[in-house]
C-alpha cells in the first residue's frame, strides 16, 4: 500500500479505531503508539549487478511499558501524526508504507500491508512479513544502457 492511499484511507474513516493484525488473530495491543515515521530512501545493487532505488515510509508501532487498558488510537489521531511528519519531511505519496513492530518475545520486524478492512467501529490493517527475494530471478531480462541482457540469480 502506498503512503498516499493509507493517508486517504485514514481521512475517510477518521472516527474509527485503528488496529493492526500482525498475524492471523494476533493484534498489536491497543496501548500502541505511533512513535516514529521514517522517510527511507534506499539504493541497492542486487546479486546480478543491477541497481535499484526504492522510497519507503516506515511507521514504528511502539508499546509503552506496563499494562494499559486504553482503546486503540483512532484514524483521525493517526492521520494527524502522518500529517505532522509530512509537513516536516515531505513524505513521498507513492512510497510503499511499511510498519515496524516487535514486543517481548516477538522480534522486531518490518511488515508490509496485506490488506485494510473496515469493520463496524474499527479499521483493521493486516500485516505480513515478506520473505527475502532474489530480484534477478523475478525478471527474464534487464536493460543496461539500451542493451537487453538475459539474467538469472547471481
In short:
The chain has 154 residues and is an alpha+beta fold.
Fold topology:
Layout: H1 3-12, E1 17-23, E2 26-27, E3 33-45, E4 51-62, H2 75-89, E5 96-103, E6 106-118, E7 122-128, E8 141-144, E9 147-150
Parallel strand pairs: 1-7, 4-5
Antiparallel strand pairs: 1-2, 3-4, 5-6, 6-7, 8-9
- Uncertain runs are none
Instruction: Report the total helices.
Output: 2
Pairing-aware structural class of the strands and helices? alpha+beta
Strand-residue proportion: over 45%
Span from first to last CA?
A: 29 Å
Shape: globular
Question: Average pLDDT across residues?
Answer: 89
How many separate structural domains?
1
Helix content: 10-25%
User: Can you write the helix and strand succession as a string?
Assistant: HEEEEHEEEEE
**In order across it, which strands form the biggest sheet?**
2-1-7-6-5-4-3
Kindly provide the radius of gyration, computed on alpha-carbon positions and rounded to a whole number of angstroms: 18 Å
Biggest sheet overview: 7 strands, mixed
The number of distinct β-strands equals 9
